[in-house]
Write a structure and sequence with these properties.
The structure holds two protein chains of two kinds. In chain A, about 0% of the residues lie in helices and about 55% in strands. Chain A is mainly β. In chain A, the strands form two sheets. In chain A, strands 2, 4, 5, 6, 9, 10 and 11 form a seven-stranded mixed β-sheet that branches. Chain A has a four-stranded antiparallel β-sheet with strand order 1-3-8-7, with no helix packed on it. The termini of chain B are far apart. In chain B, the strands form two sheets. In chain B, strands 2, 4, 5, 9, 10 and 11 form a six-stranded mixed β-sheet that branches. Chain B has a five-stranded antiparallel β-sheet with strand order 1-3-8-7-6, with no helix packed on it. The chains are: A mainly beta, B mainly beta. At the A-B interface, strand 4, strand 5 and strand 9 of A face strand 5 and strand 10 of B.
Chain lengths: ~110, ~110
């Protein structure tokens, strides 16, 4: 079991550029979550999917953020255009859609927007 | 909207001491209360969890105490060790709505050798 795989680990980009973060969940898991972590706001849930379908995107901060899950083994979080305040660590997590099933987090993507 | 409130923000404990982190929730629909541990450069990882029909759960040196009427729960780390130094998050999730999990703000624990 390779765990949840996120890429890239670090991303530095200039304001206005498009950023795409990638996630490969654990095989067999049917729920996928995108979180953002900052010192000020902690771990914020941005969006989550069940069986590849977006269920709740109320945490997505602005229309500049979008997420897709084209199949059970891949998801992307896109920011376009990026702004300095988007700088944070973005985590992807997956789990079984069962009460009591823990979230398995990737090691995150540290995004810096200059 | 902060649905899970966690305190303290940071905690320094002597080796061998007891670390206590507290959380309070608002939504009575929550039915699963996990604690996650995060080391620098890593994602959070499940430490221990409890359901609301149980008042206490113990796993090794880690114990969750749960008070349903007060809507509060806490993590106790007995015999704290320097290796326990990490950030701890309480969380809450509910069965409806696809098991959405909301996290507390986190507590940075430092255990002095």
């Amino acid at each position: 079991d390779a765990g949840v795989i996120q890429s890239p680990r670090h991303e530095v980009t200039e304001m206005g550029q498009e950023v795409t973060l990638r996630c490969k969940p654990i095989s067999g898991h049917n729920s996928l979550f995108w979180y953002r972590q900052t010192m000020m706001r902690g771990l914020e849930l941005l969006i989550y999917f069940n069986n590849n379908v977006p269920i709740d995107d109320s945490g997505m901060p602005e229309d500049r953020f979008s997420a897709k899950m084209p199949n059970a083994s891949f998801s992307t979080l896109k920011i376009q255009p990026s702004e300095p305040r988007d700088s944070a660590v973005y985590f992807c997590a997956s789990s079984f859609r069962v009460v009591g099933s823990p979230l398995h987090f990737g090691n995150g993507t540290r995004l810096t927007v200059t | 909207q902060q649905q899970v409130k966690q305190s303290p923000q940071s905690l320094i404990v002597q080796k061998g001491g007891i670390s206590i982190i507290n959380c309070a929730y608002e939504n009575t629909a929550f039915d699963y209360f996990p604690w996650y541990q995060q080391f620098p450069g890593k994602g959070p990882a499940l430490l221990i969890a409890i359901r609301p029909d149980v008042s206490e759960k113990k796993e090794g040196r880690f114990t969750i105490s749960f008070n349903k009427s007060a809507k509060q729960f806490s993590l106790h780390i007995m015999d704290s060790q320097p290796g326990d130094s990490a950030t701890y998050f309480c969380a809450a999730s509910r069965n409806t709505g696809g098991f959405k999990t909301i996290f507390g703000a986190g507590t940075r624990l430092f255990v002095k050798a």
